[in-house]
Amino acid sequence: MTTASAQAAIPPWDDASITAIRRDMLRFARMHLRDSGAAEDMVQEALMAAMTSAKRFAGRSAFKTWMFAILRHKIVDHIRASSREICGSDLAGSSEMDAGLEEFDVLFKRGGHWNPEDRPSTWSDPEASFEQDAFWTVFDICMNNLPEHIARVYTMRELLELETAEICAALGITSNNCFVILHRARLGLRVCLESRWFQGEAR
Fold this sequence. Notes:
This protein is mainly alpha-helical. The protein is about 65% helix and about 0% strand. It has 2 domains: about 5-80, Orthogonal Bundle (Rna Polymerase Sigma Factor, Chain: A), CATH 1.10.1740.10; about 95-200, no CATH class. It contains 10 helices and no strands. Pfam families: Sigma70_r2 (PF04542), Sigma70_r4_2 (PF08281).
């Protein structure tokens, strides 16, 4: 994409599509920060940064993806700064985290083995699916179906790319609990994607 065509892909800042992107950005920020005021601030900072640096948008990714990348950096910086000041009373307790894990336990027999009917199938061509916009729409639905705390830990690790120690410090959980949550998140996403996408129901 040329510079001119990349710039032409940027909608007016008062366009309805920008309003929709801002709404999605705010939902994403609130999930991670658990503070509506801080989430609003991060989204506003990201939007201002996008406006001032719009001329550098090269079109190598979708405009919405580019804006979310800016927001991601803002959120990571905020989490890293606030985790050094976080109070114990503000941390999510392990019992609250554990409550979100219970619904996945039905997938397994005693001892941690898959129930036969819930055993994951082999995905035929995942790389091709990742290139389809419809797949990511289904993926977003599956993410929203995860318990909030599980989704938060997963996106902090996989989307924000925070280290495990940083996630544990920000949420007040142990590294072992973090690994368990990430494992259950991946299982939950797999089960959802198999039923909604890879078995053909969402195509």
